[in-house]
Amino acid sequence: MKFILVKSAKLALLFSVAISQICYAENMIEPYFPGLPGGTAASETCSNYQGYSINLIEQKGDQQFDLYKETDCKGPQIYSLALGIDANLAGVWQSFLVFDEGTDVNGHSLRLVSISNNEEIYTLAFEGDAPQFESKKIIYFTPSEEEATAKQCSALGIDFKDLKENSAGVLIGHKFEFLLETKKSAPAKGQYTCYAVQ
Prior knowledge:
alpha+beta, elongated, four-stranded antiparallel β-sheet, 12 strands, disordered N terminus
């Protein structure tokens, strides 16, 4: 019994350290988006982020994320966001909370919410590789209805047959960059990826 408790404590400590590294690293998010700090499930909980705090409440099959101006979910509530049950608070990038909405019929989406302005500034839909978070931009591939060819995928070193197997098809995802300076997304011309449609 003592061995199990010690082992559990070690695992909890390692997980806590990993989450801390995610929260304070320059690139805040790691593929494929860790869950809430401490591994807390979708139930009433409070987490602190850069002097702010966010409370998660599960209700009627959805989740409500409430942002507070002070730590420990005290002080005035300054923003509220309702998302599906599969969503989670993936982390903090620069001055934005990053919410992972999970995958649905429209693909995989992230929402960026400004902590300083208390407003949602962008919804980013992506396919293929997980978005890459850099200090001044987010690099990602947008979904499309453009069918990929074996030649296109091979040019990228992607196995077309492997993607096509057990999928509804293979499409082209176009590379975009969300720029911190402009708060807008722009295409990276001529750059693409191949992804499987489930």
